[in-house]
Each structure stands twice: as structure tokens, then as C-alpha cells.
Amino acid sequence: MSNLKLNIAMSLDGFVAGPEQSEENPLGIGGERLHDWLVPLRVFREMHGEQGGEVNASSAVFEGWFENVGATIMGRNMFGGGPGPWGEEPWMGWWGSDPPFHHPVFVVTHHGREPAEMEGGTTFHFVTDGIDSALEQAREAAGGKDVSLGGGATVAQQYLAAGLLDEIEVSVVPILLRAGARLFDNLDGASIALEQVRAIEAPGVTHLKCRVTAA
Amino acid sequence: MSNLKLNIAMSLDGFVAGPEQSEENPLGIGGERLHDWLVPLRVFREMHGEQGGEVNASSAVFEGWFENVGATIMGRNMFGGGPGPWGEEPWMGWWGSDPPFHHPVFVVTHHGREPAEMEGGTTFHFVTDGIDSALEQAREAAGGKDVSLGGGATVAQQYLAAGLLDEIEVSVVPILLRAGARLFDNLDGASIALEQVRAIEAPGVTHLKCRVTAA
Description:
The structure is a homodimer. By secondary structure, the first copy, chain A, is an alpha/beta fold. The first copy, chain A, has one domain: Dihydrofolate Reductase, subunit A. Chain A is 18% helix and 29% strand. The first copy, chain A, contains five helices and eleven strands. The two termini of chain A are 20 Å apart. Chain A binds chain B through residues 12-14, 170, 172, 174-176, 178, 182-184, 187, 192-196, 198-201, 203-206, 208, 210, and chain B through 12-14, 170, 172, 174-176, 178, 182-184, 187, 192-196, 198-201, 203-206, 208, 210.
């Protein structure tokens, strides 16, 4: 069975991004602190072509985000997409020439463009007809493997509200952002029941995995 | 050193009570689910004069709430206090004739009344001149031991905003309440920095203990 899994970092007061999110600053003001536990990890640095770094209980959790995953969905701010913000050149996102996905990535956006084939097996596809279409295309591309939803807040909320998520891993970071985008917001009347699968304590973060069950 | 420690259950979307809190329903609509992990515990049942019950990873956490604690502070809804809602008799709160505290309890309220001495060493004191006064009286009564802040949301927010808490244990419950009282709300410009002490996974809940540090 192919699951749709959300992995996202959330402050203890419920925000997955600070205020004033933009293409230049997709995590908003102060939001980069949500990744303070992630960025020093050796496994994260290796994935971005760097050496050294820490190994701790978060390492296996982060690796788990990519296990058995055949395709990724993300929102446009997380891609950094749209027309190039800094001049005429088409902007290729945050991910460099060899993005760490190594599988098809579907970017939910209003800006249609041709697919961008990168080094290392990652191809960015730009989906302009909504989250159902993105999921359908991602499931097809994943060939039976899971589909990972990378965020940001808006697409996460949309998939939650539509009842399309099978699993949520929330990495709870002991900071208070006080303002910004909440993960559990704009859910309208959606009925969402959760079942705790496991919690893992790591330096500066606790990883809570929940199964989304029929409410 | 005498610490002020908050122990409170919070939904994954950040609420410590559902909507429409009242003296009759201090946890609001749906809020009693915040205690679904707690009520079946043997240690909780024994504390309320009942037998049987479960033993799991939450048992030691719950016992820890009372360790080295010499006094408790709570808000009026948690006491159930004020004039008796059901007839003329003075209402003695939710806690029965032998409350589980066995030490002085300071109830922050607008309704002044005489102290109520219960069986088993618990005396309820009613503090009408604010949270600073309640803390001062509780520290004095605790005689060097810690002071426990039991909630509800309003007094927890007040102590957080005033920068008076030393430790927060948030028991994160994998439910979405969607509305009600948020723990981290009404904090105004308070500068609050947290440091994760530990996380404990238990059935249906994860207990996150954080130290409040100078921001």
C-alpha cells in the first residue's frame, strides 16, 4: 500500500513557519530555528554534499523520511519556485543542481512551467491543477512506494483538510514562534483522528509519529 | 531551590481545554479526552480512592508531578470553586473530602472565602490578589520544596507571561481539539526560551519536559 506521509517540524506552540513567509524566506521570520536540530546532522550534510556533522537519535528519523519513498510533493515556497525572483534567469529552487530526492518531485503551484530534470534522478514537475492531481501523479510515479509530503504549511493543511494523509511525523521543537503558519489550521470541518505510533527523543527535538485514522 | 513547575495536558494542535469552559465543565467541550491517558492509571485511581488500573510509562511521570512538591497553585475552574453552582451549599470543588494533594493548595480566584481544611492534609486557600501573591504564599507554605502549577489555561498563561515558571511538562495528546484555550496564548511581549529536558513516550501521550530559561 502506498502511503502519503507528512514530515514537518513544528514549534511547541504549533507553528510550522514564522510570520512573513516568502519565496526568499520560506520558513518566515525565526522559522529557520525549526531546523536547528536537523542542519548539523551528518546525514543531512551528506545529502547536501557536505562532510562532517553529528550523529544522534534524529539521524535515523531523518533517514526514515526517505525510506520506501518513490515520489515527493511540496508547495511552491518550499521549492522556491515561480518566476526567478532575482533577475531574468529561471529560478531552480533551494535544492541546487543535484537535489537530495533522487526521485520525481511534484511542486503544487500556480506557475506552470516545463519539468526540470536535475542531476541524480530528481525531476521537478509543476502541478497547477491542485492537490488531488499532484497526489495522483505522485502515486503513479512512486510505483507502489510511499509518497512524501514535504510541506510547507499551506499544502500540509490542504492535504489534512482533504483527509488524504495516512501518516504524520511532527518533529516538535521546544521553541515558541508566537506567530506565523500553524500546521493545524484552515481545516474547516474536516474530521481527523490520530493514533500515536511512536515518539523519539533527540537533542532539541521530539519526533512524534501518528497514523491518521478514520474519525 | 524552589521551582515553579507546570504540568498540563495539551492536544497536538495546542489546546489545553476545549471550547465553552465553565465551572461545570472545566476542560470545555471534548477537553476530557486530554486525560484519556491519565484516568485509567492505577496511580491516578489510587489517589482518588479507587482500586485497579493500568501501569505504564505514564505512571512514573504522573508520580513525578507530586515529587518534592510542597504546595500547589490552581485556577478557579480547576478547583470548581466560587459559590456553589448546585444549590445553597458551598461547593467544595472536584476533589472530594480527601483531595489527592496532601499539602496547601492556593486557588487563584475572584471569589474570596475562608480557607477550607480537608482530610489528609490538603487545605484550600483562596487568593484574590493575583498570581504574584499566590506564588509568594505557595513558596512560603512549600518550605523550600517545589510549587506545582496545576492549570487551567488562564493561570498557566498568566504565569508564563510573567516569566515566573521554571519548568513546564507538557503531556502532548495526539488529538485535535480545533478550538478552546491554547496554552501558549495571551503571552503579550513575554520573552520565553525553552530547553528540552526529556521526552517520554507512553500509550496515547508523550510527556515533554522543558526548562524555562532566560530568553
